[in-house]
Amino acid sequence: MTEYLDNIRDDFKKSFFSESIGLEINDVSEGNVKLVLPYRQSFENMQNTIHGGIYATILDTTMGLTCRTFDYDAAITIQMSIQFIRAVREEAIHSTATVISRNNKTMLVEGKLYDEQGYLVAHSTGTFKVVKDETTHDAD
């Protein structure tokens, strides 16, 4: 595995946010990130299904990390849309992302979220600003 992919794994492991919600990384390769979130009752909304904000969080994280697999130090969400397709109750969810278009400053990414049976539960697209040196991401 190349050094920048190792850096993504290391950064993910150091993320207090990912650790606090239990988000796990399953696979990282160029153009490919797969994450899984084991079920927790604390993710449930008033309908006893996993809250849509959890869906959005996982998709945003997956798409951003996928941008970084092209040797970028940071990916900043510029825009994101999500379509909620199916409710999930008491099971893990997992995500994948695919880059649709990219240049040296932005990427358009598609994210998909699935339940344990492999049913699509949410679909998302996002535009991300990508930077090579994360100390410069606010300079533009």
Question: Strand sequence of the main sheet, in spatial order?
Answer: 1-2-4-5-6-3
Structural class of the helices, strands and pairings? alpha+beta
Coarse shape: globular
**How many distinct folded domains?**
1
What summary fits the major beta sheet?
Answer: 6 strands, antiparallel
Name the CATH homologous superfamily.
Hotdog Thioesterase
CATH class: Alpha Beta
Strand-and-helix sequence, N→C? HHEEHEEEE
Query: What is the radius of gyration?
Result: 15 Å
CATH architecture call: Roll
Share in helix: 25-40%
What is the helix tally? 3
Question: β content, as a range?
Answer: 35-45%
Query: What is the number of beta strands?
Result: 6
Sequence stretches where pLDDT stays below 50 over 5 or more residues: none
What does the average pLDDT come to?
92
Write the CATH fold name.
Thiol Ester Dehydrase, Chain A
Observed structural traits:
Thiol Ester Dehydrase, Chain A, 6 strands, globular, 140 residues, 6-stranded antiparallel beta sheet, alpha+beta
Q: Could you characterize what this model shows?
A:
- It contains three helices and six strands, in the order ααββαββββ.
- The model has no long low-confidence stretch (mean pLDDT 92).
- The chain is globular and about 40 Å long.
- The chain has a single domain, classed as Hotdog Thioesterase (Thiol Ester Dehydrase, Chain A), CATH 3.10.129.10.
- The longest helix has 17 residues.
- It has 140 residues and is an alpha+beta fold.
- The chain has a six-stranded antiparallel beta sheet with strand order 1-2-4-5-6-3.
